[in-house]
TrEMBL record:
Originating species: Laccaria amethystina LaAM-08-1
Ketoreductase domain mapped to chain residues: 18-192
Pfam families referenced in this protein's UniProt entry, alphabetically: adh_short_C2 (PF13561)
Keywords of this entry: NADP, Oxidoreductase
Superkingdom of the source species: Eukaryota
InterPro entries: KR_dom, NAD(P)-bd_dom_sf, Sc_DH/Rdtase_CS, SDR_fam
SMART domains on file: PKS_KR
Protein name (record): Ketoreductase domain-containing protein
């Protein structure tokens, strides 16, 4: 591993001159992270689903970043289309001028069903989007970053990286494996000055948790168990994402940073 750069503390969190590729940035945690990276000085490439009549393009995050005076571009790809994912990193490189310094794998999907009735098609969808697409993108990023001896890869894991959950066997399997993949890549690439880490959100008020938020009993049970006394908000990830993307985390490798209001400590 290269020595940590001698940078004044006031500049440790600057991403000026850096380019970030981020999936899942159209809403929720991903949107907040993309905007935070731009606020720290990075140019940002947002991965979005191919637009169609049923899924028109969502340029809210793109416009928010450009309103800051930062550079933002979009590359279209459906992450459940693994053939398209295999060419995604190169497409982003071409759009961003041949350099990507930061990869953030934030996109994810959820399917809920009792394990005895969990559809095989749902299992495949969740594993492909939440794990295999992350592996393919991370491998492509490593092929770009390792020879240059610089780079940051940040994977969004989950509390279910550690816990089993209920009625979400595919999600738990994918996020558990993603934690191990994060550590495995860090073991190989840390010595090449490429830091690979994960962020594990707790209970966050986003669309993915809308069923839990709409269930008064589960909402009360979960809320009472969070020491911070509230569910998280997407903006709670602005600081952690900038930290892991910046020189401030140069000696942080293979970590799974839990952002959960104290849930795991309980």
């Amino acid at each position: 591993m290269d020595p940590s750069p001698a940078i004044p503390a006031s500049a440790l969190f600057s991403l000026k001159g850096q380019t970030a590729l981020i999936t899942g940035a159209t809403r929720g945690i991903g949107a907040a992270c993309a905007i935070a990276l731009a606020e720290a000085g990075a140019s940002v490439c947002l991965v979005q689903r191919q637009p169609s009549e049923s899924t028109p393009p969502n340029h809210e995050t793109l416009n928010a970043i450009r309103a800051l005076g930062a550079t933002a571009e979009v590359v279209y790809c459906d992450l459940d289309d693994l053939d398209a994912v295999r060419g995604l990193f190169q497409k982003a490189l071409d759009i961003m001028g041949g350099q990507i310094h930061i990869l953030v794998n934030c996109a994810g999907i959820q399917r809920r069903s009792p394990a005895v009735a969990f559809p095989e098609s749902d299992w495949d969808d969740v594993l492909n989007v939440n794990l295999k697409s992350v592996w393919l993108l991370s491998q492509a990023a490593g092929q770009h970053m390792v020879p240059l001896r610089r780079g940051k890869i940040i994977n969004f894991c989950s509390l279910l990286t550690f816990q089993g959950g209920l009625t979400v066997p595919a999600y738990a399997a994918a996020k558990g494996a993603l934690g191990q993949l994060t550590k495995a890549l860090a073991n190989e690439w840390s010595s090449q000055n490429v830091q690979v880490n994960g962020i594990c959100p707790g209970y966050i008020a986003t669309d993915m948790n809308e069923k839990l938020l709409a269930d008064p009993t589960r909402l009360r049970q979960i809320s009472e168990r969070i020491p911070a006394g509230r569910w998280g908000q997407p903006k709670d990830f602005a600081g952690p994402i900038v930290f892991l993307a910046s020189p401030a985390s140069q000696y942080v490798c293979g970590e799974l940073l839990v952002i959960d209001g104290g849930w795991m400590g309980r």
